Input
Amino acid sequence: MLEAAKRWARLLKRDVVALYLAARSPLTPWLARVAAACVAAYALSPIDLIPDFVPVLGYLDDLLIVPLGIWLVIRMIPAELMARFRAQATEINARPRSLAGLAFVVLVWLAALALAGWWLLG
Output
């Protein structure tokens, strides 16, 4: 069971990089490119929307939200094209980082803090 979980995690990491490549490819349909860019940006962000130290919810994005997003976007990309992106992703040694995903998460946290401050002080 542990080996199956490790294999699933490796495939998930590969698919995130494949979506990163799909988002940059002009061959990908435009709606799939936008969705792939959003999912890849969030998945490759160095910080999570819900930090992992938050009990239960911290791992929710890692275990449910990201895999569900990947699954949905993969269904939007033609199978032959996705196979090509997966092959390219396998050859990439370094996992890319997403500054856009980082900026999104930071903006959401700042907005939440501003809203909480407004609510508490208002």
